[in-house]
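Q&A log
Question type: sequence-to-structure
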Amino acid sequence: MPSQMIRAMIGGLQKVVHKRLYRDEQDELVELAPQIWQWWLSYPPPPGPLRAARRRSQEARPFEERQAVGNPAERVLRALAATVAEKGYPATTVAEVVERASTSQRTFYEHFANKEEALLAALDSGSAQMLATVLPAFRRGQSWEHSVKAAYEAMFSFGTEEPEYTQLGAVEMYAAGKRALQTRDTIMEGLEALLQPGYELAPDTPAIAAEAIGGAIYALIYDQVKAKGPESMPELVPMATYMTLAPFLGAEDAFALANGAG
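Response status: OK
Response body:
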């Protein structure tokens, strides 16, 4: 079993547990244990190495160029994401953000009550832009399983195009508290809904699988961004595809699609 898969599976478990702890729903965890075990056991080792297809390297447009087309509020949000990515959320100040956004504190406070509200808005903005890329790619797939892979290709390409939002949403938001985690979970629940067709293919898949898979993919993204930066995210396409499809399709079919061209 690749160590990356084991880390992702642990991430899926952590997501299920953590969500219920901060929602004061911990009593559900004992009842969910059999489903979690069933989900874990749905992952045989892949039949071979999961390798990303060679692609032309992608680079984000310069930060200043992306800022130039934004209104003041949008510039503040991207500047906040960039500053948090460099310094961490606790060390980021409003003064630094507005300077980087080429605006004023007056403009900042016209749109946001405080730094936390701006952070939540930045998470929403980055997520909305990501979804605007992912959902059309998902809908163009020739089948559900191909749609899953296409969605990951689009999602991870967005990660290279907007590295500041990616760093914020994947890593730095953990320092921002419970509300940021709730915002992240709302976004993830929307993506988890895209996995519902898998249950038609494999009705015995445990109901918790979609939620756990979301946590597993998030763990993969977190590790990748921490280790190699947002620009490396397209490398995750095969592993994310396999982790998502194996519980529904089985190892052979999930592996073929994860490593295939389509």
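Response note: The chain has one domain: 3-56+123-259.
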